[in-house]
Design brief:
heterodimer, A: alpha+beta, five-stranded antiparallel beta sheet, two-stranded antiparallel ribbon, 5 helices, 7 strands, B: alpha+beta, six-stranded antiparallel beta sheet, 53% helix, AP_mu_sigma_su (chain A)
């Protein structure tokens, strides 16, 4: 079982938090802080597994994480999950984000947390892995986006226009996560089919 | 219209959306909290508007704020509103918000049941998908119970997208509503072979999660998984299955043998590291399970270790880490094969990655031997010196102590060395583990008698140099060591060379800065030392020195008498007075030493940590019984402080009654615990004897670093390194001596061909330096031998420990009808419903099924255009619904043959002992073909007793096995033929036409007249109640009363409360905490013309007599203008028949039963019965829960069993409208009553 999925940036700001067990908001923030504290002090070239997420579940659980440019993707899992499998799942997740957002960057995640949630929901459900096939995930995500668009119809048009205008004034220049550039060494793992 | 929408959305577009909110927060970095609070105010305004789009936008923003840590539960109701939007866009937003912030305590969750059900059956697959995803995050026991059946239906949805989600969510449903596991399991198993890989993967996922917690229940699935493992190419699925096998093998070693080969093949062939790693892991698990049996698996171990070495040597830190992790598993059973890689593991200790270092440390723990302990510890000590950061160093420290102390100091050959290691460890800066070192010192000094002299000397030095340990500050964790040092010096003071000096050291003024509990020990042990000194000097007749000692104590102790610590103060003042008294005696030249020593005489023996727990409870002592009568509930409630009440949540509704009560109980327990904790007279369970001294608060002492940069060399303290050298020298000497001896021996034994002792340095060769007598810990007399495992009683998986091979009972069906208020209904369907009681149904279960279908119809509350669809739906549902029915029947017939588990087990045995490809016999477990189940498992089960244990060697061919079985079957048949009454045995369905009767149903003859067991309970102008009583298979003292309530009026009926006046014998089961006169709320409301069924459980003691219970139904009639309270009295009639359960019986078992002579007979004659014999039998079967054992022409034998296990046998004969029934039963009064009831049944026709 996956107990929680967290995405935060290099400063510990949460970009997505998905807990598959209930915690109060305060505890959740504490978990995010603790996890950030554990993960951020590790060097780049050490292993991606970490024991001792004290708040979630205790000793049975492991933190499995990957660091991409400005973001940490952290999965908290119990012993029933394969460590290398989860690492690969994170990779699939990030690649899917990359495809859905067309060259994803941290800003995409900041402004479209709901979309990220929707993509994640096609991969992991209730803490269990639902789908590992990237093309299948993308198909389903796109079909749902299409449905939303058709529902919005003419009514949605003006709102979209306004939001496009608003976005033009974005002060920040998007910084890429650069998924393509950083070569992530996945140990000989052919993607799940 | 369109214009209006556009206009609305133009108004809306200037609302702040999620992006604006995020942007705003980013632009207000300085006053983020303030900005967000204004945003929340805006959101609150938006939520008040009617426009659903505005609401959805607001909820979307709330979801974001929730992530930032804001509590948004106040908007729960609005979230439900957005969830119920018909637009997918908004619905998705609503479900996302719900999945982020709903939980079991959210009360509005109760409102979502119908909405979710609607979404689940939506024609749009994404509506269903979104509902399932959301539900997976916030499913509660109530939701799970109410929706289990809907989700189960979705498991067979046409779209794989829905199927996989439905399959996956079942795990959550099982967790919350364990009763659903058994009914849903057959379909879940089916999904393992779903054509869609995603669905298959989901099913594997769910079963693996289930099996991980309760593996034994899933052993029978091993053949199926084996097939999947050899056929699947999906790495994800393979990993899951292989992990599952890892959990199953410890239960069934034969499975392991079967697995080794395919797993090794995978290890050789796969290129995916993740798969390789899991294979190695499972092979290790297999090897562990086989470790006792098979010696020739060294090849597999070698393969694993070799592969793991490759992983550890890899530059990828992840692989290195996992390699070490797996290695530690091998270590447990095959330490030798790992020990050869010691170099590699020691190398990992130098790794820059802390996780890897920690794993390597774990491995070291198992790798030590008598031979290498000193060497390894030396290396670790070096690391301790080098280590940066206290966490890792503390970890090293605990590991050193763990390694040395493991299995009762098994590997320590020289305790002087160990003591010096411990002393060296005390020099660690700012460690948190002072108490750990202290407890080791105490333990060794107490248990190893030979070392005491040395230990005392060391401790005396420690005490003398205490200032070095405590450093500038007294609040250092390491000063715990002084506790041990002082105690050891005091207790074993006879070994002290210069007790006077130690006494002096212990009474230094600086001591007063130590923590209280340590001071207390100092004071107490100073007294012990005082006694020793006195004794020493008395022998020398040197009164001067003795008096000086007394003087010293009298001078120094007042410092402690002033201590703020109560314990120190008390002890000090006691001892001070004592010493003063002794001084007086001394001045009179009285010899006191002996008497003073007597104060501290006697040896203290170590007590085992579990000793307290193992003290057997004396007979006749009930620890749970109240000593005094507890004060009445109400009083204690009043006494409680008000704050407790204020915290309590208001009770939401009546249906949550039980939960609230459990909370209440837990709270009371908590309060009681607190009271006990504060009560000094309450004896608490002590955690462990070794920690008893560990006064509260030690852990809280903040750790402050000593600012000592130069490593400490305390004069007079030996270094452990010396010991390593000494030890080596000693061993060499010993070896040389041994060799000499051996040579001698060899000379003597030359020619006899005896092999020389293996390896020059085997374990046994190393003898301890000095004879060490390790005192074992004391246990109480007649201690309980059992090692009780402390399982967490709150583990939700405990409830899922359910035997899945047992046949499904009727009572286990998923509830479909309860808790489902039907509001809208077309009149046609109402009529449909009304006619149920009169309709012809053979079995009550079928009846339920029918109703279920009706419900399906009800949900399609639409008009003509949808009718076509409905028909289509029915056709679709037909096969699905009949399936469980078939399963029940077939499994019932299994039960007749033998306990079903043995049938299953024999299948598994068969698979395990035969060829790797699963033979057809395995297919039997699939519920798909009822016929197959009827024959083969029965056969298998029958052959079971003849071959007590499957002891055949592995290579037996399956065909042989099958032949054997067939032969057995034949023999069996022949045996039966020899019997006087030869008839078709109903389970020999292959034997041709089946005119026998099965399970109380009659086939192949004229159609039966309609029958119903529901009889009228009570009726007035508003409501009609009919009821049926059924025994419960599982519980011998419970019966279930199903009552159908039908609203006959034009008004709405609500708040129905069902209450019964209990008798001594029969009681209505009420939720815990309810009083004996409280009524039960009927879990639904009735709109006009609607009927619904509710079930009530009664407990009964004696079942031999029929009885009647009076009861009342109260309800509120609500019409448009008024609402009135109404009540309806009724009498529940518990007939003896209702305690009988239709139980099939074999004719031979039946014959045996009759022959046994335990049964008492009785008979009955019925005149003028003019109905066909089979109708007559069917009536008895149906109304009185009998089953036909055999039938010959106009004579039949029947059987039934009561819930308490009474056998009831009938022999029914008919001729010329006269029916005679000869009956036998082991309870005559029960029989008499049953016969009377049968008579009544027929007199009515």
């Amino acid at each position: 079982m996956i107990k929680a999925i967290l995405i935060f940036n290099n400063h510990g700001k949460p970009r997505l938090s998905k807990f598959y067990e209930h915690y109060t908001e305060d505890t959740e923030q504490q978990i995010i802080r603790e996890t950030f504290h554990l993960v951020s002090k590790r060097d780049e070239n050490v292993c991606n597994f970490l024991e001792g997420g004290l708040l979630i579940g205790g000793s049975e659980n492991k933190l499995i994480y990957r660091h991409y440019a400005t973001l940490y993707f952290v999965f908290c899992v119990d012993s029933s999950e394969s460590e290398l499998g989860i690492l690969d799942l994170i990779q699939v997740f990030v690649e899917t984000l990359d495809k859905c957002f067309e060259n994803v960057c941290e800003l995409d995640l900041i402004f479209h947390m709901d979309k990220v949630h929707n993509i994640l929901a096609e991969m992991v459900m209730g803490g269990m892995v639902l789908e590992t096939n990237m093309s299948e995930i993308i198909t389903q995500v796109e079909a749902q986006t299409k449905m939303e668009k058709s529902e919005a119809g003419i009514a949605g048009a003006p709102a979209r226009a306004v939001s496009a205008v608003k976005n033009m004034n974005l002060p920040e220049m998007p910084k890429n996560i650069n998924i393509g550039d950083i070569s992530i060494k996945v140990p000989n793992l052919p993607s799940f089919k | 219209m369109a214009l209006k929408i556009v206009k609305g959305s133009i108004d809306r577009m200037f609302d702040k959306n999620l992006q604006d909110l995020v942007r705003g927060i980013r632009n207000h970095k300085e006053d983020e909290a303030k900005y967000i609070s204004t945003c929340i105010d805006e959101i609150k305004q938006e939520l008040k508007q009617d426009n659903i789009a505005v609401k959805a936008n607001a909820v979307c923003k709330l979801t974001y704020l929730q992530m930032l840590g804001y509590d948004v539960s106040w908007a729960a109701f609005n979230i439900v509103e957005v969830m119920s939007s018909s637009k997918f866009t908004y619905k998705r937003i609503g479900y996302l918000a719900a999945s982020q912030c709903f939980h079991e305590g959210t009360d509005v969750i109760m409102l979502t049941t119908n909405q979710i059900r609607k979404d689940l059956s939506s024609p749009n697959q994404y509506d269903t998908g979104v509902a399932l995803t959301g539900l997976s995050c916030f499913v509660t026991p109530d939701l799970a119970r109410d929706l289990a059946n809907d989700i189960m239906t979705l498991m067979s949805h046409t779209k794989p997208y829905i199927r996989k989600k439905a399959v996956l969510i079942m795990y959550k449903v099982f967790l919350k509503y364990p009763e659903s596991l058994r009914p849903a399991f057959p379909r879940l198993k089916e999904k393992l072979e779903d054509p869609d890989p995603g669905v298959q993967s989901a099913a594997v996922n769910v079963i693996c999660e289930l099996a991980r917690r309760n593996p034994k229940n899933y052993l029978s699935l091993a053949p199926l998984f084996f097939k999947l493992m050899t056929s699947s190419t999906n790495n994800w699925v393979l990993i899951k299955i292989i992990k599952l096998f890892g959990a199953l093998t410890p239960l069934e070693p034969r499975l392991g043998k079967k697995l080794i080969e395919p797993l090794t093949n995978l290890i050789h062939s796969t290129s995916a590291m993740s798969l390789l790693y899991e294979c190695v892991n499972t092979v290790i698990a297999v090897l562990i399970s086989l470790s006792s049996g098979m010696p020739n698996h060294s090849a597999s171990i070698q393969l694993c270790v070799q592969k793991l070495r490759i992983l550890i040597e890899d530059s990828d830190q992840n692989l290195k880490y996992l390699g070490l992790l797996a290695m530690s598993k091998i270590l447990k059973t095959h330490p030798k094969s790992v020990q050869s890689h010691k170099d590699l593991i020691l190398q990992c200790l130098d790794d820059k990655d802390e996780s890897i270092r920690l794993r390597a440390l774990d491995l070291l723990y198992g790798m030590v031997s008598k031979k290498n302990l000193m060497e390894i510890v030396k290396k670790l000590m070096l690391h301790v010196d080098k280590a940066e950061g206290t966490t890792y160093r503390d970890e090293l420290l605990t590991k050193i102590i763990d390694i040395c102390s493991q299995s009762n100091y098994q590997y320590i050959t020289n305790f002087e060395w160990y003591i010096s290691i411990l002393v060296e460890l005390t020099r660690l800066e700012g460690t948190r583990h002072g108490h750990l070192i202290a407890s080791q010192m105490l333990d060794v000094a107490i248990r190893v008698k030979a070392i005491r002299g040395f230990a005392v000397a060391q401790m005396a030095t420690l005490l003398d140099n205490a200032h070095l340990l405590t450093g500038n500050t007294q609040r250092n964790g390491i000063c715990e060591v002084l506790y041990a040092a002082a105690w050891i010096c005091g207790e074993f003071s006879e070994h002290l060379e210069d007790p006077m000096q130690t006494l002096e050291a212990m009474l230094r003024p600086k001591v007063a800065t130590l923590p209280g509990h340590i001071q207390a020990v100092y004071v107490q042990n100073a007294a012990k030392l005082f006694a020793t000194v006195l004794q020493k000097h008395e022998g020398e007749t040197d009164s001067q020195a003795a008096q000086e000692t007394s003087q010293l104590l009298i001078e120094r102790l007042p410092l402690f008498v002033q201590s703020a610590n109560l314990e120190v103060q008390e002890r000090a003042s006691c001892i001070l007075q004592l010493v003063k008294y002794i001084q007086k005696l001394q001045q009179k030249n009285v010899e006191v030493a002996e008497e003073v020593t007597a104060l501290f005489a006697g040896e203290l023996n170590p007590v085992a940590p579990k000793a307290q727990k193992k003290v057997p409870i004396p007979e006749g002592l009930d620890l749970d019984a109240w000593i005094n009568e507890p004060p009445s509930e109400s009083e204690s409630e009043d006494e409680k402080p008000k704050a407790v009440f204020a915290k309590e949540e208001p009770k939401h509704s009546r249906s949550r009654h039980t939960e609230v009560d459990e909370k209440e109980l837990a709270r009371r327990r908590e309060v009681r615990k607190q009271e006990q904790a504060n009560n000094p007279f309450y004896i608490k369970a002590s955690p462990s004897s070794q920690k008893v001294y560990d006064a509260p608060g030690v852990e809280h002492i903040p750790v402050v670093q000593i600012d000592l940069s130069v490593p400490l060399k305390v004069p007079g303290m030996p270094m452990s390194d010396q010991y390593v050298k000494l030890e080596e020298e000693r061993r060499q000497k010993e070896k040389a001596e041994k060799k000499k001896k051996e040579k001698k021996k060899k000379r003597e034994k030359r020619g006899k061909g005896r092999k020389a002792d293996s390896g020059p340095e085997s374990e046994e060769d190393i003898t301890p330096a000095h004879h060490v007598d390790i005192v074992t810990e004391e246990m109480p007399e007649n201690a309980l031998p059992s090692d009780d495992d402390d399982k967490d009683p709150n583990d939700p998986h405990k409830a899922l420990d359910i035997d899945l091979d047992k046949p499904l009972a009727d009572s286990e069906k998923l509830p479909v009808r309860t808790h489902r208020p039907e509001v809208l209904k077309s009149p046609a369907e109402d009529r449909d419903n009304e006619s149920i009681p009169q309709e012809s149904k053979k079995k009550s279960s079928k009846e339920k099924k029918e109703k279920k279908k009706d419900k399906e119809k009800d949900r399609k509350r639409s008009k003509e255009e949808k009718k076509k669809k409905k028909k289509h739906k029915e056709v679709e549902e037909e096969p699905m619904e009949s399936q469980p029915e078939e399963a029940i029947q077939s499994e019932d017939s299994k039960e007749m043959a033998a306990p079903p588990t043995s049938a299953e087990a024999s299948d598994l045995d068969f698979w395990l002992s035969s060829a790797p490809v699963p033979p057809t016999a395995q297919e039997v477990t699939a519920p798909s073909s009822a016929a197959a189940v009827d024959t083969s498992p029965v056969a298998a089960a029958e052959s079971e007793p003849d071959e007590p244990k499957d002891t055949e060697p592995e290579d037996t061919k399956s065909s042989k096995h099958k032949k054997k079985k067939q032969k057995k079957e034949k023999e069996e048949k022949e045996k039966k033929k020899k019997k006087r009454h030869h008839h078709h045995h109903h389970h020999h369905s292959d034997g041709g036409g089946e005119d026998s009767v099965q399970n109380g149903t009659v086939e192949d003859e004229e159609p039966l007249p309609p029958m119903s067991n529901y009889s009228l309970l009570a009726e007035n102008s508003y409501i009609k109640m009919v009821y049926d009583i059924q025994g419960n298979h599982q519980d011998e003292s419970k019966v279930v009363v199903s009552v159908i309530f039908e609203n006959k009026s034009d008004s709405f009926l609500k708040s129905m409360e069902f209450n019964v006046l209990d008798s001594l014998n029969s009681k209505l089961q009420r939720p815990e905490g309810a009083g004996p006169h409280d009524g039960l709320t009927v879990p639904f409301q009735l709109p006009p013309g609607v009927s619904n069924e509710a079930r009530f459980v009664f407990s009964v003691q004696s079942i031999v007599m029929p009885q009647k219970l009076k009861g009342t139904l109260t309800f509120i009639v609500k019409s448009e203008e008024s609402s009135t309270h109404e009540k309806l009295d009724f009498k529940l009639h518990f007939t003896c028949t209702s305690y009988l359960i239709t139980t099939p019986c074999y004719s031979d078992a039946y014959a045996k039963l009759l022959e046994s002579g335990d049964l008492k007979g009785s008979s009955l004659r019925l005149e003028g019965v003019n109905m066909p014999f089979h109708h007559l039998l069917a009536r008895i079967c149906f109304h009185h829960h009998f089953s036909v054992v055999e039938r010959i022409d106009s004579c039949a034998s029947m059987y039934s069993r009561s819930i308490q296990g009474h056998h009831v046998c009938l022999l029914v004969k008919t001729s010329d409208q006269t029916v005679s029934i000869d009956a036998k039963c082991d309870e005559p009064s029960l029989l008499g009553n049953v016969l009377d009831e049968i008579k009544q049944t027929f007199s009515k026709c």
